């Protein structure tokens, strides 16, 4: 066993010694291989898998248990954390996980930080702590709205990008409930020009209602 392997083994043993006392599920990720080096007992039970089976899955662990739509949101944050090699930084993110408790996705809040460097000075292990969000609380409803909004943003980013700067200004005012004559006064343009912008915006976004216009305005931080 190399010195690096021994340090890694000792680090994981230290985490495992207190893992069952933590409120969440502790996971140690081996960064170079993108595999799970350790998961606390509660996590293994929820997934219905042994530690040996989990390690044998390798990188396929993520595809098997996690919603891939979420990964598009948090994976860049994780890789940025690794690239910065900053052991003081902590990132947090939401994940939807498939567990034995429910056939549907269960929502978890996870926090992660780097745990150990290799002999080359590069990040070797990453530690995450994942806590289930109680579905009986009001938080999941708010979180789901954020998830839906992020999904909407990703799906319509190219469409929104087709709007000009002026059209985005008009969209913001439309979402706030202003009429074309009111928008004309605010932007110092004619009512006819304001109406033309309104018509073009609806056509470009494929929006038929004020609610749909509001969706775009909220998702892209216009209001």
Query: What oligomeric assembly is this protein in?
Result: single chain
Number of helices: 10
- Domain module count: 2
Strand content: 15-25%
Distance between the termini: 58 Å
CATH class of the largest domain: Alpha Beta
- On the 0 to 100 scale, the average pLDDT is 88
The helix-and-strand class reads: alpha+beta
Order of strands in the sheet with most strands: 2-1-5-4-3
The 3D shape can be described as elongated
Pattern of helices and strands: HEEHHHHEEEHHHHH
Query: Measured on Cα atoms, how large is the radius of gyration?
Result: 24 Å
Estimated helix fraction: 40-55%
CATH topology of the largest domain: Beta-Lactamase
Q: Total strand count, please?
A: 5
- CATH superfamily descriptor of the largest domain: PAS domain
- CATH architecture assignment of the largest domain: 2-Layer Sandwich
InterPro entries: Sig_transdc_resp-reg_C-effctor, Tscrpt_reg_LuxR_C, WH-like_DNA-bd_sf
Keywords: DNA-binding, Transcription, Transcription regulation
GO molecular function, one term: DNA binding
Organism: Hymenobacter edaphi
Task: Describe the protein.
There is one protein chain. This protein folds into two domains: 131 residues, 2-Layer Sandwich (Beta-Lactamase); 80 residues, 3-Layer(aba) Sandwich (Rossmann fold). It is built from ten helices and five strands. Strands 2-1-5-4-3 form a five-stranded antiparallel sheet, sandwiched between helices. Helix 7 crosses helix 9 and helix 8 crosses helix 9. The longest helix is centred in the C-terminal third of the chain and has 23 residues. It is elongated.
